[in-house]
Amino acid sequence: MNDGSSAARVAGELRAWIRERPAGAKLPSTRILAGEYQVGPVTVQSALQLLVADGLVETRPGVGTFIAATRQARPVDVSWQTTALGWSDVFDVEGSGVRTHAPDVIGLHTGYPSPSLLPGALLRSAVQKVSRDPEILMSAAPASGLPQLRAWFARDLDGQRTGGSGIDESDVIVTSGGQSALSASLRALAAPGEAIIVESPTYWGAMAAAKAHGLRMIPIARTKDGIDPADLDAALAAHGSRVFYAQPTYANPTGDVWSPHVRAEVMQVLAARKAFLVEDDWARDLYYDAEPLPPIAAADENGHVVYIRSLTKSLSPAIRVAGLVARGPALRRIRSSRWVSELFVPPFTQQVAVDVLAHPGWNRHRAALRRELRTRRDELRAQLTRAVPEVEVTQVPRGGLSLWVRLPRGHHAAEVAERALTLGLAISPGSEWFPTEPYDQFIRMSFAATPHTRYVEAANILAEVLR
Description:
By secondary structure, the protein is α/β, with parallel strands linked by helices. The protein folds into 3 domains: about 5-65, Winged helix-like DNA-binding domain superfamily/Winged helix DNA-binding domain (Arc Repressor Mutant, subunit A, Orthogonal Bundle), CATH 1.10.10; about 95-120 and about 365-465, Alpha-Beta Complex (Aspartate Aminotransferase, domain 1); about 135-360, 3-Layer(aba) Sandwich (Aspartate Aminotransferase, domain 2), CATH 3.40.640.10. About 40% of the residues lie in helices and about 15% in strands. The protein contains 16 helices and 16 strands. It has helices at about 5-20, 30-35, 40-55, 80-85, 120-130, 135-140, 145-160, 175-190, 205-210, 230-240, 260-275, 330-340, 345-360, 360-385, 415-420, 455-465, and strands at about 55-60, 65, 105, 170-175, 195-200, 215-225, 225, 245, 275-280, 305-310, 320-325, 390-395, 400-405, 425, 430, 440-445. Strands 4-11-10-9-8-5-6-7 form an 8-stranded mixed β-sheet, with helices on both faces. Strands 12-13-16-15 form a 4-stranded antiparallel β-sheet. The chain has a two-stranded antiparallel ribbon with strand order 1-2. The two termini are about 40 Å apart. The model has no long low-confidence stretch (mean pLDDT about 90).
């Protein structure tokens, strides 16, 4: 058993001990607890730190550790806020993908990979190295990001370009993950009350950012090739919009990939309408069949594409970094817009990312990640086919982290998700992913956070819910 799980076990035992004793009671010494629970003193100290964090005990240097007094919560009347705040059009529904459930729940709702899929050894080595640099620990970062990390994002995109002027670090802003880049882009490129064009269904976080900025979302339907460029042209013209948000590669939640001819025709529409595409390339590292097509930004010569390249899913949710690439006045506006919510990304976070990306093990990690994601995709599909043949996986994704599943007629996604959770399975109802009227016959099942050994149980639960 590792130290972390041992500390959690000891903390659990002590919680039971604390419940039976009054506030102010003194806990046994570290030496006595170590002997009683057959662990080392360091593990005992780690357990006590967990209890301090929970507010259950307090330490008094030189005296000991004592049960903390229970604070009586006073009733709080916040009803006045309803009148003070008034009407709101803010997207205030928490997406199922960011909710936290009990550890024993099978989590097919979240879009974050489990720690076992991430480069733990590379991260630990980088953190130890960077933590020894006092300048990194004590300094602010340049507003647009560390030059080394900006240069990495520039090279990553420039290496996929087929012509035109190159990308360099002056075209890049480092942000705290893709969501931050997306929010800053929408604030900069569209004014409150204006319309933006989005795919339907689309990423939940993009809808939240648009709503928070007071933007109207105009949906265009997905097709087998991605979208119909004629629909985009018509929507831009009809609504006077100049911004189109899309995920052309492994779209969340459907897994769709735009075909080459759609990519080319979309660029023509953008040029003709003098419009911007905010290209969210969130899953560039998460392919597991053929390597993905180059980003649309790689073919952009005149600054129509604002490109967002996130590393959160392949590196670590704890090291949230993304690169935003833009050119011209749009870049300057985005840079100014971003300062509203974040002045800079901590240099410690950025330098850890730089060290991991420069390590020879990074590419080996990405290859291993892709193999494991493919195994999980295939196993979840197989178990759904076995236990719930009446559901339909609309397409076999070639990248990303989830399956988009159509329910049989007569079943509603929100009700299915609610019932599944009572039986220990968390899934994401498809209604959350539609910008206008929800189509309540889909669920998203992510295979990123839960090992494939639990997919049999997950499929069986879904089968029971649909009976």
